[in-house]
Structure formats: C-alpha cells, structure tokens
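Q: Got a minute? One more chain.
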Amino acid sequence: MVKIIRLLLLIALLAVTLSGCLPAPSASAPTAGSPGPTGLYWPTQDWRTSTPAQQGMDAGLLSQAIEVVKQDSISLYSLLIIRNGYIVSETYFQGAAADQRREIYSCTKSFTSTLVGIAFDQGLIDGVNPTVLSFFPGRTFQNNDARKQAWTLENVLTMNTGLAWIEGDPSYQKLSTTQDWAEYMLDLPMAAQPGKLFNYCSGCTHLLSTILQTKSGNAAAFARKFLFDPLGIQGYTWDTDNQGIPIGGWGLKLTPREMAKLGYLYLQDGQWEGRQVISSAWVQAATQKHTNTGGALGYGYQWWTYPKYGAYAALGRYGQTIFVIPGTNLIIVTTAQSEDNNDRIFSLSDNYIVPAMIN
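A: Always. Here it is, folded:
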C-alpha cells in the first residue's frame, strides 16, 4: 500500500513538473457560486444553507443532537453540519457567533500537512522519503545517532519519529522559550527506531513548518497564496515561533465555516473552483492510515483516520474538530473548550448526526 501511495505521489509530481504549473481549470468545472450538474458549488465567498430534508437528513435527529449538547453541558462553542456542500445545521453556544475566530489547536496540523503537500506538488519538496536532517545542511545537532540520521519526512508526518518527546504543557513551555524551535527539537535524544512507535508530537509538526519556511522562503506568504487565498479564507491569524515562522502544530485561528473549507477541499479531492489546489494523490495519501495509534483511530499525514465510517478528522485540544465522511459527503465542525470533548463529540456524531442521514 505504501509503495502504491508513493507511486501516486510521484505521478502527481511528474504531472506538475511537466506542465510547469498547477493543472488548468476544466472547461466543465463549476465556478464560484455557480452550481454544477450535481448541485456542486464553491463556498469561496460563503456557504449556502439548506434544509436537512433537502440534503437527505432527518431534522429531528439533528435537533436532538443540539438538545443533548445543552442538556449534557457539552462545552461546545459551535456545531456546524454540512452535507453535499450545504449547511444543514449551525448552532452557536455560550454566546459564540459565526464570525468569531478561535484557536483551533492541533487542527492546525492538518493545514500544515496540506501545505507540505502543496510544496510537494510544486517540486519544492522531493517526496516524503528525504531524511529530516537533510533539510538542515551544514548544521550539527546533539544526540545525533544512526536513528536520528534515519528518520524521514514521512516519519514526521505520521508521528513515528522515535524522538524522545513527551506531549503536554511542560514540553510546549520549554519549546516556546527557545529562540530556535527546530534546533531544540532536533537536539532531543531518540527513544525508538523511526517508524516503530506512534508518539504524538506537536513539536515535531513544527519541523514541517520550518522546512516549508526554508523551501518556500516564507511559509506564511506561501500559505496565504496557495491555500488560504484560493479558499477565500481572509482575516485569519496564525501564531509564530520566536523567528516568525508559523507554528506547525497549533496557533491557527479560524471561524467554524473557515475550518470547514479544508474539509471540503479534501472532500472534493483537492479541487477548488476548477483548480487543483492540492493533488488528489496527496489527499488520498494524507487521509489513509499509516500508523497504529493504540486506539480506535489510525493516523495518516497529520490527519486522524476513523475506520468505522471510512472517515478522517482534524482534531484539536478541548474539542476542536473537522470531521469528514467522504462516502456520505458529510462534514462536521466543532469548536469547544473542554478536556474530554473529543470523545463526547464522537459520541454525538455516532448517536445522532450520522444516523440522521436518510439517503
């Protein structure tokens, strides 16, 4: 499977290289605000709304989901449900509003991964097999043994670097006080052979952002030009490290509707307004399981995979969620503020939102 995925990625890169640019828009592709033959449109300016029934969903079950949030005191700020590209339910809690941007925490990682994929498509990054240290030529790092020399970009994307990192506030605080975040991460000792052990590592994701900075010249400008502007995401903010590099693992602030656009981009196989923003090969690779996590979820390229529905999700601390179920054209977005919200949100989806799909 890995060989097939890598072949798809190489084919995508070859296509971009031969053309010298991103694929040209299809003459038959729907344009912004203009529904195609199946009702497809592009929510670049904003999302359209629909009744649940019009999109094959049970309004009663969706209403029950909202009541459960209120009755069970699930600390959500927002619950946004989109089917077939149309908002069928949108509720805000605790005084929140649709235009409020909030920290999406580790959902940021899926945006960072997308930018790595775009850089790959453009030939700025030569696949997922180069070693991490090869992106930092001429530099030396502590605890540099054979295991550290072996870990690859794919190991970073799939959270199995083998690096001795302990996820949590103490590690975040140590990292944030250093001048060079990449150097801090690359100085850490190894705890396992790369590719052998899943170890969730937000600091490792920042290495992806640092590599983007090196390869593009300006990671923030690259993100705006090739991802946020095409999707019509304006006015967002993204926290940076002490060198001005966007933080790879957290720090992005978006509205729920803006969060949903990333899910929709992937749901449309990387296309937006007839343009291939990110290759289909990368979308497929990023949302497939590459790593066992020890739980019900798998892990792809900075996306969690949910085999029960053939789904994938960006998950952030305190209950931030972009949950995509391709087989049913369903996107569920939440923003929240509670340590145990991810499990409760999945339960909400399992018991009410997914069963609400009639056809």
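A: The two ends are 31 Å apart (CA to CA).
Q: Perfect, thanks.
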